[in-house]
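Build the 3D complex.
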Amino acid sequence: MSRVLMRGNEAIAEAAIRSGLKCYFCYPITPQGELVEYMARELPKRGGVFLQAESEVAAINMVYGAAAAGVRAMTSSSSPGISLKQEGISYIAMARLPCVIVNMMRGGPGLGNIAPAQGDYFQATKGGGHGDYHLIVLAPSTVPEAAELVRLAFELSDRYRVPAMILADGMIGQMMEPVELPEPVEPEDIPERPWAVTGAKGRPKNVITSFDLEPEGLKEMSLALQETYREIERNEVRWEEVETEDAELLIVAYGTMGRIAKTVVRLARQEGIKVGLLRPITLWPFPYEPVRELAERVRTVLTVELSAGQMWEDVRLAVEGRAETPFYGELGGVVPSPKRILEEVRKYVG
Amino acid sequence: MSRVLMRGNEAIAEAAIRSGLKCYFCYPITPQGELVEYMARELPKRGGVFLQAESEVAAINMVYGAAAAGVRAMTSSSSPGISLKQEGISYIAMARLPCVIVNMMRGGPGLGNIAPAQGDYFQATKGGGHGDYHLIVLAPSTVPEAAELVRLAFELSDRYRVPAMILADGMIGQMMEPVELPEPVEPEDIPERPWAVTGAKGRPKNVITSFDLEPEGLKEMSLALQETYREIERNEVRWEEVETEDAELLIVAYGTMGRIAKTVVRLARQEGIKVGLLRPITLWPFPYEPVRELAERVRTVLTVELSAGQMWEDVRLAVEGRAETPFYGELGGVVPSPKRILEEVRKYVG
Amino acid sequence: MSVEAAIPEGYVKVFSKPKALSDAKYTYCPGCHHGIITRLVAEAIDELGILERTVGISPVGCAVFLDRFFNCDFVQAAHGRACAVATGIKRARPDLVVFTYQGDGDLAAIGAAETVHAANRGENITVIFVNNGVYGMTGGEMAPTTLPGQRTTTTPLGREPRLHGYPLKISEMLAQLEGPAYITRQAVFDYRHIVRAKQAILKAFRNQLEGKGFSLVEILSTCPTNWRMTPVEAGRWVAEHVVKVYPLGDLKDVG
Amino acid sequence: MSVEAAIPEGYVKVFSKPKALSDAKYTYCPGCHHGIITRLVAEAIDELGILERTVGISPVGCAVFLDRFFNCDFVQAAHGRACAVATGIKRARPDLVVFTYQGDGDLAAIGAAETVHAANRGENITVIFVNNGVYGMTGGEMAPTTLPGQRTTTTPLGREPRLHGYPLKISEMLAQLEGPAYITRQAVFDYRHIVRAKQAILKAFRNQLEGKGFSLVEILSTCPTNWRMTPVEAGRWVAEHVVKVYPLGDLKDVG
Amino acid sequence: MEKAVIFAGFGGQGILLAGKILARAGMNRGLEVTWLPSYGPEMRGGTANCTVVVADSPIGSPVVDNPEALVAMNAPSLDRFEGRVAAGGVIVVNSSLVKRAVKRHDVRAVPVPANDIAAELGNPRVLNMVALGALVRGLDVLPLEAVEEAMEEELRGRGRDKLIELNRRALRRGFSEAEKYLA
Amino acid sequence: MEKAVIFAGFGGQGILLAGKILARAGMNRGLEVTWLPSYGPEMRGGTANCTVVVADSPIGSPVVDNPEALVAMNAPSLDRFEGRVAAGGVIVVNSSLVKRAVKRHDVRAVPVPANDIAAELGNPRVLNMVALGALVRGLDVLPLEAVEEAMEEELRGRGRDKLIELNRRALRRGFSEAEKYLA
Amino acid sequence: MPKGIVVVDKERCKGCGLCIEACPFGVLGFSSEYNSSGYRVVYMEHPDKCTGCAICANVCPDVALEVYRQEPTKEAA
Amino acid sequence: MPKGIVVVDKERCKGCGLCIEACPFGVLGFSSEYNSSGYRVVYMEHPDKCTGCAICANVCPDVALEVYRQEPTKEAA
Ligand SMILES: Cc1ncc(C[n+]2csc(CCOP(=O)(O)OP(=O)(O)O)c2C)c(N)n1
Ligand SMILES: Cc1ncc(C[n+]2csc(CCOP(=O)(O)OP(=O)(O)O)c2C)c(N)n1
Ligand code: SF4
Ligand code: SF4
Ligand code: SF4
Ligand code: SF4
Ligand code: SF4
Ligand code: SF4
Ligand SMILES: [Mg+2]
Ligand SMILES: [Mg+2]
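Done.
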């Protein structure tokens, strides 16, 4: 397939459509407007349903309905809108419905601004809604990777009946890069959903619920869910390593910061500083083991984020004292340049 | 003062009124119904405003308004309702408004049930809303402590202009215990709020906002907020220790589990097992240092929760490999008895 | 029922539990009209022969257990979001018959936006709206529909409209919109009204089958437990007082 | 303005920026009616002499910068929640004059429940509702108020009511409720209408001062940028097309 | 000293109030107490129970594995909780409704026909006080007067003053009824 | 090879499209490219800018400290970005609007009266292509034909086919204009 | 033989009394029996008066009643 | 002397043209000047025709206009 120049937002939309997306529900918000527009234009032409909901709360509950009815469903938003979806996400998680949620993070908290940021890491990975649940969280660092991970998100979500989130930021959403789009899936490649509400014809009724008033019953549902999480943790951890073999300092960074860090590695190596990069691709499940192993070999594990130190906690949980674990973060939508980070790196080497 | 037999929900309500609560906004949900009822009955009589909102979303935004207007304001709810408040909480945090939010946790995720649970730990302590913010999170383990911590919540919230949460569960809310209620505060004991919107008479206008479109501006707001958080971390960590001096195994548990763990310590000691308990009272800021210090002295730090291992992450962040860190949790609203936990303790001693 | 055997010959069964209902006992309190309304919905499903392609959406409220009572597919929705969930299902699979069953707290308070917008979109679904003037399940708090002066746990001195709001006539409000095909208010406090309510429910489902769009049947109901009345008193209260504030009849019908 | 010095003697100033406005330049696009409406609110505040006890609530939307433009206290509300925030402020300090200024996406879509319920409570606040038929700030998506057939970025083939909903006449809907004191629809596409709109805004504030309760002034506005029209064309579009779907005039006035 | 009691029965049998009065009596006498209700779907017209702990030092868990006493006001309650009572404990059974005997041999059974006694006293609703009276005797931690006082405080000034005497008699009848089995 | 360009000017000057065409040309010739717009409150009628990176290996950061080239379509843009251009880089200035000269001496300045040339060509809106043409010459990474092709692809089939020829002429004029300074 | 017979599902009946109130012929009354949930159930106190009109069953919120009616004799039909 | 004078705040004016359209006497027009935001600003093209009615200022969305009117002479009053 030839490469097309696309914005991240558009590439995500197109990849979702090619992944058999049937229903997309949204409420507009910057910086993911082009995703909404693209869907409005393309999805109905390609046999899908585009509906602009009255709010993010309604949109996530429409996703709940469509997913319950057994089709591939998706919503997208940005930070404040994602906060409004937390109750719905918690329901979807416990009701075991597959779906994909895109968060193009922006500066926060509150109304904040529309610049790129990564302050929703905890919300995405630890569960911003109530109760013990997880989303599969995938963090693309380039536009082509965003398209790829959308496909993966649908697949994993279906396989485990766990909702998946694409966690990116305004920069990934707004920038253009050449993309090779995934081939459209065939309908028969989408797993069957015998549990879906499609009319109780020739089978016992199906019920989609997150409710059990009896603690023992709810515990059972919860244990099944936790068991699935353990399985995902075993099977689905994904990450990228760059020049880690001989690294003395390891940068851990994801998404937009992950790609900027690649330039930092290059610049550092030009100066003879042995820097490596571990870029988590799945934020949940987090690559604890890979980080831990590298931590045995390096002196310093530097976490770099567009936030106040959220992934840093996961890094420290992995490192557990095996290396020093400094942190560098930017806030408010400020994106540090490679040089700025290189300065930070220099503090810990030589 | 004499002791009164009160439900946790009622004691919290009365303590809030005695702390100078002016405005209370709510949306009904079990298991905090008695709190709402108590407020409806008492607050208007005592010069305050009780208003049942149309939803949790509206309630938290009413709190935002009342707090902006410079009065002590509060809302209460339980897990799914708290999820709906996440956007509003994130706004309040960034707009630097003091207020108190009560979460009487119940079984989750989703609709779950109304039994006691602690699955909202991450949501409360890491920020379930978007962006980098924290709540001051106080976790009472008895009814009298709940009343005390409500007073503290208002005080800390005012002092730092950071919203405070009382994180308890259905058991604390529903049970009765003798309480000594705090004395009513005098109006002059409530700190002034020169920043509040009270009409721009004889002063420049006041603006309450969480918005700055310029990354540099938003960064500045964020840094000020983070600075406050560091100050709170230095000054306000609170915890209780029980028989930790010679302990070989340390239990870490909070709230309802914290008090049940006290019985476990007693039962264990009766059997000659040297068990101690560290009960975090502030969940944010978490008592990392105290846990770390004890971890140097014990072989095992056992975390016990009514959830799938949320506080456990904070415990492991504190311990950083200094001791083994097993976990025991219950889910779905099941509350383990002291004996059940004692069994767990026995696995790690002798 | 095994007793059936004891019926002498020459008798025909003229009333029994609709097939759309399972054997599960209701969780409603004694005498609560929810039970009647639930049965009427089941009867309508039976009569239209649509059980095998119907999906119900249960609310959060005393009807939260609805999936146990019915024999069709069911989805339990977050409090207030039933209309959004129904929209998702219906858009995904337009061939399904989709209905929500919601209390007044659910539909008119927390769910007001979802209700108004589904109605305004003319979403082709059927909404059963049980107005009992209180939050039944959570213990009798004020609902948007509570009558002026009515005591509830959150209006201990009676609802004072200037403080707590006026009784919200959401059906009248929705009838103003272009989207809905059918908005009606019914009651079930006696046989005559039950028969009419049943006809309204049938029509609301038929509209959906005919693609006419959003149909909502509001049904005045009781909450003997939280009203602190006997079931018989509660029914009379509806007949005498509630219908004055919420007059019965069709508010919109595009025919 | 320093130019003032250049005015010859014998002239009096008959029009200048209201005192309630600061010197900050508007962030609105060229020719956007938001600017007129913002000024009218400021003029009303001036005329009533209430600047020092007024608190404005800015929405999320093109009016998000409102706090910069006004000289009174301001609170920036989450998208759609201005009426809830206003309720909180007004209940905490009933002596303040509290107004919200909201777009149609803010007030009628995401904020529908908060609007309906504040209105139904008769909350003693003033609501300025700027209906421009699109989501201006986010780049021109469909709003609940978008006209049938109107192209927006989310209705690229034009709004199709059966798919995307009908134009939501929220003022008509609110006028059905008992709570509101005053609901009116105005426009500002020419001088005559500007004068009338100003009177309506004054009345909505006076109602609050007199304790009459919830007053809402809907004002048909333009969005030249997203409508892809010149400001002059946009104004004409309102005069010729928008007013047909949204007729001007008072919808409720308890006097 | 730390003793726990589970009160269980149908909703409407006054189970929660009986427990609360016991807790209050304990508090009034300077003891530590906790009162923990169960709550659930069957709150209305279904079953209800509460656990009361009375102790002379701070109470850890209000959830109790093996209570020293059980008040079973109907058959399902006895079925459910009988096995959990601590050896040597006491089980007060409302023999008006529970037709079977207590199966355990390591506990003291106190069958009290609470409905019948209440009817006899002229008000079927005081059956809970009859049972509570019996429990007080069986538990032997608080004097009956303390419980009577607590009952008075509970009822006084809530339009239920007139019922105090009746309730007092019910408590006493229950107490003396238990005497038969425990003397 | 990795080269970055910042295009900056008023909204409406076609800055983002010029950047996109450059990126597209790079992609068509098998290079890696990124195109990153700025966006902000002043999107409408305010200033706009975008950063394009063209490289022959995967691109790390699309955010660039020191671009090899700047296209400054108005005075504020020159003020803002002049200092950041890498030594030896090139600055294309729209001299129709920017009256001052480039202050830096370690860069190559290419003043192009883009508005005037566009007006001369008969359509004031092609000023962006004039500037892009000049940039292509200054950057010297892609042949002008590649950029012409990319421009064609962008405009073709969107009701803008008729403008292709005009735009081509604008590109060429810009290119040859730059020739004066860089030859 | 009565025209109608009402069969009470004792485990479903919650003793609310709505059927008793609704029966136009005073057929139904409370029995002295309690079911396993503790509700006093309804029974046909005057079975002979029953017309089989099923009003009772229609008003019963708990779907606890089944109603049988004598088949019309061929002649009457 | 004209009856009215309109003062344009050039930095506020966004060149939307609404005032030009609204002036009943065709007083206003676009000048050839651009302000620092790149907008072409308005000026009094026919100052003599101005009546000082302030309609232009009323329709100006950017509060960019101030209007002065000749004081009525004592006699006229
Ligand atoms: C988000 C959320 N808020 C609140 C609740 C608590 N809740 C459960 S049911 C209910 C109201 C029920 O009232 P209504 O909808 O009138 O139904 P009814 O029980 O009267 O039939 C509430 C507030 C909840 N479960 N979720
Ligand atoms: C929770 C949330 N959802 C969405 C947005 C994005 N957003 C900003 S403004 C806006 C709509 C603005 O439209 P409208 O209210 O009509 O105001 P206008 O700009 O047209 O004046 C939206 C959806 C947001 N900031 N927060
Ligand atoms: S609480 Fe009220 S509405 Fe709910 S089941 Fe009981 S009587 Fe019916
Ligand atoms: S986007 Fe539209 S509504 Fe917003 S300021 Fe511009 S013209 Fe006005
Ligand atoms: S069938 Fe008719 S007559 Fe017979 S008991 Fe029922 S209501 Fe009465
Ligand atoms: S109406 Fe039904 S539940 Fe009520 S008493 Fe009669 S049979 Fe029993
Ligand atoms: S004041 Fe009146 S006459 Fe003068 S320019 Fe303005 S509109 Fe025209
Ligand atoms: S109306 Fe105002 S902004 Fe528009 S052109 Fe006239 S003076 Fe300028
Ligand atoms: Mg209700
Ligand atoms: Mg708008």
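Chains D and E do not touch (no CB pair under 8 Å).
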